[in-house]
Amino acid sequence: MSYTRFxxxxxxxxxxxxxxxxSWLGCDIAGGCETxxxxxPGLSDITMTPRKYGFHGTLKPPFRLADGxxxxxxxxxxxxxxxxxxxxxxxxxxxxxxxxFLALTPRGDLESLRRVAGACVxxxxxxxxxxxxxxxxxxxxxxxxxxxxxxxxxxGYPYVMDEFRFHMTLTGRLPKADIPVWTETVQRFLPGLPxxxxxxxxxxxxxxxxxxxxxxxxxxxxx
Length: 223
Fold this sequence. Notes:
single chain, alpha+beta, four-stranded antiparallel sheet, three-stranded antiparallel sheet
């Protein structure tokens, strides 16, 4: 399989949370396929944007391979990184409104999550092709702080390192009036959320030619 971009995600292991995410988005990132969704009017519309990425938490944002680098090289490097990284643990997950989006976010001490994500960004950066001017300007249009712009220039993405906030996206941008209704709806369908929430593996994922991301390989964090 040929991929246009790669990313390092947290993809929940098989279980009720992964099943919920696949049914909510209509996409099983682990299986690389579409799935049946909950029978809810309007659900496919509000999940159109996150559906292409699958149910996940980003650790290293999507990137194109740098010249001279191969997918096999990246696979080996991701495996090596995971072998020396310790798992991240926080108190649990909760449903959160992020602006006009809904997502699952961690609660409690998030330092270990930032450590894992920061290592993925930094240690695998040699595989990332530099962002082009068009991409940089597109991201700057969202209105970045000076710190976010510096991170964008250095790492190709503005919300990494100290600006990183782990989240598992459930919707696209919602009309303000619809947020309370969809918040209540998500709560009704959510399974019991993990307590504590443990990230003990990372997932190398790839973007197919059709724009959908799928799981390539999981790596246990064994440091």
